[in-house]
Design brief:
The complex is a heterodimer. Chain A is of the alpha+beta class. Chain A is built from eight helices and 20 strands. The chains are: A alpha+beta, B mainly alpha.
């Protein structure tokens, strides 16, 4: 597997000597008996757009609130830019937050909302005015400066919240579900805007989201959270193509998972007997840290599987089943296939041509096959 | 309109609204009619009578004032308006002082109530949802006993050999009993104690709606707690502050029982003057004039607060 070579300075997490900007060390947060965040350690580097991805109750928002200083840390330490944050109250942290609800001050104009943090710094009047004008331009809100938040649309409010959070030029910007309240079209637009702003200003963003698509398109790295712990940290592609557990594989994108038993364990390949689920052997063309007779799982993405009416050559990675349903999505079609073993899987196919007379359709018997390096072997 | 008529026909009380509509009264107007009638009979009409009496001259007799309208022998109607009662109020410093005193005591009581009620309302609004109703009930609890009884109880606390003096002397803090009853301070205690719930409740309703994330956002942008209070919490709780202040200030001006029982001879409030004019002097015209002037004085702060509240509501709308 070839990986693109990118200079280490744009990916500081690959450089073992790089000094992290945010250091979260064994942080635990309990609410009564409940562990919201459980012994979590995480390094975030300068200039990163780090996404904390997880379902509700995974502890991602609690972690963000601890970074902002709204929640105290039960155990462990948080360091931002080399400074321990334990004794630093929220109003003195070099951190700003964009709230999920935006939390715009309803009694202030857009202008005053953006200027709020600058006024607290005691900056001179004309400097504040300059900075506000600059931010209004950046977020394309020039014409709304004197409006109150309730006179704005959802997308405009989102931009005010962003401008207000950026006003103090924080070293670290925390964004809690920044696009959650926007509709799909606006979300896609705003997504790229966010990345652009983050790159031009050279800021460090930590974004909390439950939307894996949002995380994939925004993040330099993603931390998948589950039960107050980090399930996996990695670049979007890493998380998608090389998940480390069934949970991560299933949480990010859609996936088919086959359970099986190792029958051959060699340095350059392994063979898994998955007759009960895939209905065939699975051949993996690289070594895996496992033992014969071990039960493990093979996760393969729907777009990495091929459908055919004729049986392809080979003695492994060929399943057989019945097309139960085809969902036409425009750019691609999703085939729901019931394998002979009774397991249901999804296979997607790009709709490369506009009209295919001979397309595979409902109630057809098909062979499903995949390359020997197409899936990930999971032991957990 | 037709559909509406069809629907009412099927209702059991349809005949009622139908009947009302036949004489030109819609259901909507009928709903408004009851309170309007109530106000007219029990507020506007008595007010007009009081106003009329205030423009009459005092007389010994029953009623103790001269009639305003007289049908003279030459078949002319003479209307006599005596403005002397109002002029008398201006000329005699007793009345002017009583008005100023009432306004001052009511204003100070309102401010003290606000200072006590705000933290209370804040605490209740920020406490766990399951305790909020209990705490609110505790605030209203004093209303379960008679108001008069509670003011008497304060006399027991504040009198020369009352509970507070006994405790202070037992602890050796003072060797002489302090004079607390029949002072202006006792009046403040009485008014603040009595009207505090009226301040707490409207403050609570605005504070409980205050979005916690606004406070966090303010802190996040570098505002110290007091700055957050000044720039975010206070402006957003103005509707409650105004409503609560009106509910305390307005009844406190006309308060009679509390200054009579807890206050001394020097705490002269307008309620006391009114009582004396009406019952002791039996001078109904002057008493009526006192009442009318008080109403006018009360109207000014009501209108001011009302317009302030409208401004706040508009801002939030």
């Amino acid at each position: 597997m070839k990986k693109p070579q990118i200079a280490a300075d744009t990916r500081p997490w690959r450089d073992l000597d790089a000094k992290p900007f945010v250091r979260i060390r064994n942080v635990t947060k309990t609410f009564g008996e409940v562990y919201a965040v459980d012994d979590l350690s995480l390094d975030i580097y300068k200039g990163e757009l780090f996404c904390l991805l997880g379902g509700s109750g995974s502890g991602k928002s609690t972690l963000l609130r601890m970074l902002a200083g709204f929640e105290t840390v039960t155990a462990g330490s948080i360091e931002i830019d080399g400074q321990d944050m334990a004794q630093v109250p929220a109003y003195q942290r070099p951190v700003n937050m964009m709230f999920q609800s935006y939390a715009l001050f309803p009694h202030m104009t857009v202008e005053n909302n953006i200027a709020y943090g600058l006024k607290r710094e005691g900056l001179p009047r004309d400097e504040i005015a300059d900075r506000v004008a600059e931010l209004l331009k950046l977020t394309r809100l020039e014409n709304f400066a004197r409006r109150k938040p309730h006179q704005l649309s959802g997308g405009q409010r989102q931009r005010v919240a962003l401008a207000r959070a950026l006003a103090k030029r924080p070293k670290l910007l925390l964004l809690d579900e920044p696009l959650g309240a926007l509709d799909k079209k606006l979300r896609e637009e705003t997504q790229y805007e966010l990345v652009k702003i983050q790159e031009t200003l050279g800021l460090t963003f930590v974004v909390v989201t439950h939307d894996q698509e949002e995380a994939m398109s925004l993040a330099t790295r993603i931390g998948v959270m589950r039960d107050g712990k980090i399930a996996q940290i990695g670049e979007p592609q890493e998380i998608y193509e090389f998940p480390n557990s069934r949970f991560v594989a299933d949480f990010i994108g859609s996936v088919n998972i086959f359970e099986g038993v190792v029958t051959e364990d060699e340095d350059d390949h392994i063979r898994i007997d998955s007759s009960s689920e895939a209905g065939c052997d699975i051949y993996v063309s690289h070594g895996v840290d496992c033992a014969p007779e071990q039960i493990l799982w093979y996760a393969i993405r729907p777009e990495k599987m091929t459908l055919s009416r004729e049986r392809p050559d080979g003695d492994a990675n060929i399943a057989h089943g019945l097309v139960q349903d085809v969902a036409y999505l425009g750019d691609m079609s999703v085939f729901r296939i019931m394998l002979d073993s009774g397991k249901r899987i999804h296979v997607t196919r790009t709709n490369a041509s506009r009209y295919d007379e001979d397309a595979i359709s409902w109630d057809e018997k098909v062979y499903v096959s995949w390359a020997s390096d197409a899936g990930a072997v999971l032991v957990a | 309109m037709n559909a509406g008529r069809d629907r009412t026909a099927r209702r059991p009380w349809g005949f009622l609204s139908g009947g009302l509509r036949r004489v030109g009264i819609s259901g909507h107007a009928a709903v408004l009619l009851a309170p309007t009638l109530w106000l007219a009979i029990f507020f506007i009409l008595p007010l007009l009578i009081v106003f009329k009496i205030s423009l009459s001259a005092f007389a010994l007799g029953r009623p103790p004032y001269l009639p305003m309208f007289e049908w003279a022998a030459d078949e002319s109607l003479s209307i006599t308006l005596h403005f002397s009662n109002f002029l008398f109020l201006l000329r005699d410093t007793l009345y002017v002082n009583a008005y100023i005193n009432s306004l001052r005591i009511a204003a100070i009581s309102t401010i003290i109530s606000l200072l006590i009620a705000f933290p209370m309302a804040w605490y209740i609004a920020r406490s766990d949802e399951k305790y909020r109703n209990l705490l609110l009930m505790l605030v209203i609890l004093p209303f379960w006993t008679s108001f008069l009884l509670r003011v008497y109880a304060w006399m027991g606390f504040l009198s020369r050999n009352g509970i507070i003096n006994n405790i202070l002397m037992a602890l050796g803090i003072t060797d002489q009993p302090l004079t607390m009853l029949q002072t202006e301070g006792a009046v403040f205690v009485g008014i603040v104690y009595t009207y505090l719930p009226f301040m707490v409740l409207p403050l609570y309703t605005t504070l409980v709606k205050l979005d916690q994330s606004l406070i966090e956002a303010s802190a996040d942008l570098g505002a110290r707690p007091f700055t957050t209070f000044r720039t975010v919490i206070l402006p957003l709780s103005m509707p409650g502050v105004i409503a609560g202040s009106m509910l305390v200030f307005i009844p406190a001006i006309g308060e009679f029982v509390i200054p009579a029982l807890l206050g001394g001879a020097e705490t002269l409030m307008i309620g006391r003057v009114l009582w004396d004019e009406f019952f002791a002097n039996r001078d109904w015209p002057v008493a009526s004039a006192v009442a009318i002037v008080m109403l006018v004085i009360l109207l000014i702060p009501i209108l001011l607060l009302n317009s302030a509240q409208n401004a706040v509501v508009e801002k939030d709308a």
